[in-house]
Structures are given as structure tokens and as C-alpha cells.
Specification:
Structural Genomics Hypothetical 15.5 Kd Protein In mrcA-pckA Intergenic Region, Chain A; 2 domains; nine-stranded antiparallel β-sheet; three-stranded antiparallel β-sheet; 12 strands; 13% helix; globular; binds zinc ion
Length: 219
């Protein structure tokens, strides 16, 4: 598994950030004009693998449903599983119709996608923030750079994860050539993707249109 410090990109200016500097940095982009739209700055992390993280802002008039839709697009959707936001040690459910404006600053919610082979996220409602008016409910501000997974045989960048071997092989990652040499078809392996759901269920990341592209900055 990747052990280096988790780096990411600011989607507003393209700067490379670390997870710890990301919050302070994205807040430097707050507009000062009176026309600004009130938002909540939200940090999203995988509950177990801290290499996967996002910062977004969400309009205060939006609901948790918008956040659920966004999370499915960028990280989670494989076959339409159920999902849930919850709070506290007893996992009290917080409904999708809950308005962002009614969620207090500083609160941390749990989020679970797929109650079978689940992906669990930790969602921190960091603080109120401002942005230029826009229709989009959830705007991506920063995202981790994909961990550098390597083929366990030849050391080239990994393209596939052998899901059968996920739990009992030290390195279940393969490049296409080594996967084929092992006698396995790529149809039975899952692609390496920048998501905490990599290798789970049938997750292929086909709805993730948020890959960092320096040419799209400021557009
Ligand atoms: Zn920036
Ligand atoms: Zn699935
Ligand atoms: Zn290889």
C-alpha cells in the first residue's frame, strides 16, 4: 500500500497541496464581494484509508441528497446500492432531505454506501464559507492525487487489482502484462481507480468525471 504523505490538488488554482494544508489553502479563494453565496466547507475522507480525501463546498440551500449524488459520482456508484448518513455512537440516521443550513459547523457525520460490502466515509462539516454564485450545489475544491500503486511483479504502475487475492496476497496489484502472464483475464480483475471503493463489488469508476486536469482550472 502507498505510504507517502497524501498530496492533492486545488481545483480552483491547480496548486499541489498536502492534506493538512488543503483547508487553509482553499479558504484563500473565498470571494469578498457582497454577491457571494453562503456555503458549508466539507471535508470527506475514507474512514480507514486516509489517502483518500476531498474538500467541497455545498450551498446552504442544498440538502444531503446533493452530497449523496456527488459522492456516488466521484467515488462510489457501482450498482445502485443504498446509502445513509448517520450521527453519533448509535448511528442515528440523518435523512437525505436534511438541509445543509440546518447542520451545525464542526459536526462529523458517518456515511455508508452499500450495507453489504460497504464503503464507509467520515464527513466533517468544517465551517461556513462563501463562493461566487452558481447553480451547482456541490463544488469540488480539492482532491487527493491517486496513490501510486505498483505492479507487485514488475514494479510498473498498476492497472488492475486482483479482487480474489485482495485479502490474502501482499500485493494484489498488477499491470496488464503481468495479470495476463498470471493466467488471469482482465475481465475478472477491477481497474485501479482513485477511490476508496477500488476493488470492491464491481466498482470501475465510470461516473468519476472529476479527474484533475490542469487545463480545466478556472473554467
Ligand atoms: Zn488554490
Ligand atoms: Zn455494487
Ligand atoms: Zn507488471
Amino acid at each position: 500500500m502507498a505510504k507517502t504523505v497524501s498530496k492533492g490538488h486545488c481545483y480552483l488554482c491547480g496548486k499541489e497541496l498536502t492534506k493538512t494544508t488543503a483547508k487553509r489553502h482553499v479558504l484563500t479563494h473565498e470571494p469578498e464581494d457582497d454577491e457571494a453565496q453562503e456555503c458549508m466547507l466539507v471535508k470527506i475522507e475514507d474512514k480507514y484509508d486516509k489517502n483518500y480525501w476531498l474538500y467541497v463546498d455545498i450551498s446552504l440551500t442544498a440538502t444531503l441528497k446533493s452530497l449523496d449524488t456527488f459522492l456516488r459520482e466521484i467515488w462510489l456508484e457501482c450498482c445502485g446500492h443504498l446509502s445513509e448518513f448517520s450521527y453519533g455512537p448509535y448511528h442515528e440516521e440523518i435523512g437525505f432531505t436534511r438541509k445543509i443550513s440546518s447542520i451545525p459547523e464542526g459536526i462529523v457525520l458517518d456515511y455508508e454506501y452499500d450495507f453489504g460490502t460497504s464503503t464507509d466515509l467520515k464527513i466533517t462539516f468544517v465551517e461556513y464559507t462563501l463562493r461566487r454564485k452558481q447553480k451547482k450545489a456541490v463544488r469540488l475544491l480539492a482532491r487527493n492525487i491517486a496513490p501510486d500503486y505498483r505492479c507487485g511483479v514488475c514494479g510498473k504502475p498498476a492497472e488492475y487489482i486482483d479482487t480474489e487475492a485482495y485479502y490474502d496476497e501482499e500485493n494484489p496489484f498488477y499491470c496488464l502484462d503481468c495479470l495476463k502472464a498470471k493466467g488471469e483475464d482482465e475481465e475478472f480483475a477491477l481497474p485501479v481507480v482513485n477511490s476508496p471503493r477500488m476493488g470492491v463489488c464491481g466498482y470501475c469508476g465510470e461516473f468519476d468525471t472529476y479527474e484533475f486536469d490542469p487545463d480545466k482550472i478556472g473554467k
